[in-house]
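[Automated response] Your request has been received and processed.

Submitted sequence:
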Amino acid sequence: MERAPRVCLVSEALGLPGDEGVRQFSRSLLDALRGLGPAWGLPVGQGRGGKGAMARLFARSFLDRHLAQRLRALAPDLVVYLPSAAATIFSLWRARVLRALCPGARVALIALQPRRLGPLSRLLGRALRPTVAFAQAPWTMAPLRSLGCSVRFLPSGVDVQRFRPVSPEEKERLRHRHGLPRDEFLLLHVGHLKEGRNLQALRWAVPWARPVLVAAASMGRDDALADSLVRETGAIVIDGYQPRIEELYQASDCYIFPVERPDNAIDVPLSVLEAMACDLPVLAYPYGGLPLMFQQGYGLRYVTDWRELPRLLEEAHRLETGGTRRLVLPYTWEEVARCLLAQALEVEGP
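Generated structure:
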């Protein structure tokens, strides 16, 4: 295709507050697609048309004549469906409806978290499977492949201009701005403060580091867990959406991602990539697609036994630089968008 492809991104996550992984992913991917050519965001369900997205909300079932009219008018070459609920049977149904509404376009489904399908759903899913599906981890790819889907890997991306290292002097100014202690080793975690994210592992950080928890607001928080972490580790809890979240990475010394169980984060967590772009040392469980993107080494350690945290924090203390920014530089949102277009448009089939 000589001209730039025309792309529609359809998602329930468009236009909602950006403190949750699927929402951040959809907004960032849409911006990147618009930088490469004609692209439109079509919000459905509970979304609110935001930057780069059509203002009108369409029915969540996709059986909406206004959605059909809009798609016909835009005449996309590629329709990308990014469901907030990942690849449920209902998401597969909606992707199939999009194929019927756009018979001349490729339809791609992006699944950012695993979903189990029962026997009947698997049977129906084979009939509803999209042209191509994108996923980020083996535990999400396998159920899609069992439906006969062509499944491709799609990484998460990061804004390497916004998320960048700062000088020691700037780090000190940022700590003062955000009321953080100046002379302690700050161990940051960004995400939902809830039981399933294994935040109890932070207890092994004491006294080698002071945890700083930025608790996203969209999914609520476990107050009992927050209180126990404050009491037992001295954790600093920063509640709610932080429009200048990059400053909290830049003010910290190390990043931790202790989540182990699927479905407690998207398969390639954006916070890990953002911390790496700021050149922080990262201690992470080998979660989802992270090992597909990065081998552990200087500055990046995969942890399966959190009792090793004191030793790993001592190692992080000694690092002159985080050494992780160079690993994440290939994964800009523009490159993610290019990867999506190249793979979605080369797949054989209707």
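Summary generated for your ticket: The radius of gyration is 21 Å. The chain has a mean pLDDT of 91.
If you did not submit this request, please reply to this message.
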